[in-house]
Design brief:
Elements lengths: L1 H23 L6 H25 L3 H22 L4 H42 L9 H69 L9 H18 L3 E8 L2 H8 L1 H17 L6 E6 L2 E7 L3 H18 L1 E3 L2 E3 L3 E8 L6 H17 L5 E3 L2
Parallel strand pairs: 6-7
Antiparallel strand pairs: 1-3, 1-6, 2-3, 4-5
């Protein structure tokens, strides 16, 4: 941007300086030497400044140094020419606008300081002379030069604004695309979490009844025992079996047998307390862990369930299936202190209940 602005406007400034020097015979300057130096500054220097900035490790920093040098040299010219009004105003206005555009208020102050330093050096070199009047050719060159600089500056600001808008639109599109991608990823993550939850449910729950399975029971049993040991509580282990379950399958079919297990599971689960654990132990067997319940309480609860099944039966299509259950109850720490021992004690009590005619609840001995 600054190459075009500097090269274009400097040509007109060159015209203004040379016509002013020739018109006023330089106010003590040698016109030939003054025009020669003006040619070097306003025609050659812009190309050199551009080449140096372009090859610099930090082009922006190099161009800011060039702008500060512009301000300094303009200050020298202003003093050397005896402060001609239009030429001075054009030079100072252009350099202030340039550095302000790059560095804001800081750039403005730097430009003012550089102009004053150049002016001071010019006064030292040529003395303090003040002749603000300019002839119409110099005034015209100055006015056209200032106008050209402002138009070029405005054009570049406009083009930069367009690029910023385009970049902003692209950024918005990228953000929208990123949001869509994030939404898709979040959807995938939610799906993965649902699958993980489903797999965990499948790993720890029985597919037919929805109760916990034997895989879950191992960890749950250890936790229940640890709590009962810590709080000095009893733990009742109840093993329940559907009597003559094979006959239900043979007479009514396996779908009826599945329904018997499902309804029995719902009754067990609905009567469970918060700390209790209800599992399908295998086949037609269910296992209950009753935390903090003594032997008599476990026997009463198991018998109440047995009576409910016996009297209410199982609804199946348009009929009621009359089934019964048997149960064996063992108690921690009376009948064992480890899961295997307690389950074995409850199983022996269950077998005794079956051998005595089924449809009954027995305590471990």
């Amino acid at each position: 941007m600054n190459r075009r602005n500097r090269a274009g406007s400097f040509v007109l400034v060159f015209g203004a300086v040379c016509t002013h020097v020739l018109d006023t015979t330089g106010h003590g300057l040698q016109p030939a030497w003054a025009c020669a130096w003006a040619a070097l500054h306003f025609l050659v220097y812009p190309q050199v400044a551009f080449a140096l900035a372009r090859r610099a490790a930090d082009p922006l920093r190099a161009e800011i140094h060039n702008l500060m040098l512009d301000s300094f040299l303009f200050g020298i010219w202003v003093a050397a020419l005896a402060f001609p009004l239009w030429i001075s105003f054009s030079m100072v206005a252009c350099t202030l606008m340039n550095l302000s555009a790059f560095r804001g208020v800081r750039g403005l102050l730097q430009a003012v300081a550089a102009v004053m330093a150049g002016t001071t050096l010019g006064v030292v070199g040529w003395g303090l002379r003040f002749a603000p009047e300019t002839a119409w050719p110099s005034t015209a060159f100055s006015m056209v030069g200032l106008l050209a600089f402002m138009l070029l500056f405005a054009r570049d600001v406009y083009l930069r604004t367009l690029k910023l808008r385009e970049a902003s639109a692209q950024l918005s599109a990228s953000e929208s695309s990123l949001q869509q991608t994030n939404a898709a990823l979040q959807q995938k993550l939610d799906e993965i979490h649902r699958l993980q939850h489903r797999l965990n449910e499948q790993a720890t729950h029985d597919a037919l009844t929805g109760l916990h399975n034997r895989h879950f029971l191992g960890n749950a049993f250890d936790k229940a025992l640890a709590r009962c040991r810590q709080d000095n509580l009893p733990l009742a282990v109840v093993l329940i079996d559907v009597d003559h379950f094979k006959q239900v399958n043979d007479v009514y079919g396996h779908l009826a047998g599945d329904e018997v297990l499902r309804q029995l599971a719902r009754r067990l689960d609905s009567s469970a307390r918060a700390p209790d654990v209800v599992c399908r132990y295998g086949g037609e067997e269910f296992l209950l862990l009753l935390v903090g319940m003594d032997l008599q309480g476990a026997l009463s609860r198991s018998d109440a369930l047995r009576q409910q099944v016996e009297h209410k039966g199982i609804d199946w299509e348009s009929t009621v299936l009359h089934v019964t259950v048997s149960a064996g109850v063992a108690l921690f720490p009376t009948h064992g202190t480890h899961p295997d021992a307690l389950i074995q004690a409850a199983d022996l009590a269950l077998n005794r209940a079956k051998s005595l005619g089924r449809n009954r609840v027995m305590a471990a001995s």
